[in-house]
Amino acid sequence: MDKNENEIFDLIAAHVADISLDIADGPIIRSSMLSPLGMDSIGRAELIARMLEELSLTASARDFYKANNLGELAMLFANKLKEQ
Boundaries of each Carrier domain copy (predicted)? Predict the structure, then answer.
């Protein structure tokens, strides 16, 4: 699957909106952090699992925990895709 970072961000945003029942902090943008969007550690784990499956990636979820915001998370997924 050949997706660029912007397409990956759009997928992440869609999954965040689906997983989080309470998006309290306005629109989902690259600098958005997960906790203000109502995502706890379980939500983060679900998001990463969904993205790994959707992008057909085999990687450890831990590889993505260092992301500080959704833009960094998109970049990490894009980099993993390039590696595979």
Answer: 3-81
Q: Please state whether the predicted TM-score (pTM) of the whole model is above 0.85.
A: yes
How many domains are contained in the chain?
A: 1
Q: How many Cβ atoms sit within 10 Å of the Cβ of residue 77?
A: 26
- What is the extent of the structural domain holding 48? 5-83
- The tens digit of pLDDT for each residue in 24-34 reads 556 789 999 98
| CA-closest candidate to residue 54, choices 21, 23, 9 | 9
Q: Identify the helix (H) or strand (E) that includes residue 8.
A: helix 5-19
Phi, psi values for residue 64, rounded to 5°? -110, -5
- Residue 41: both structure tokens together: 């550690």
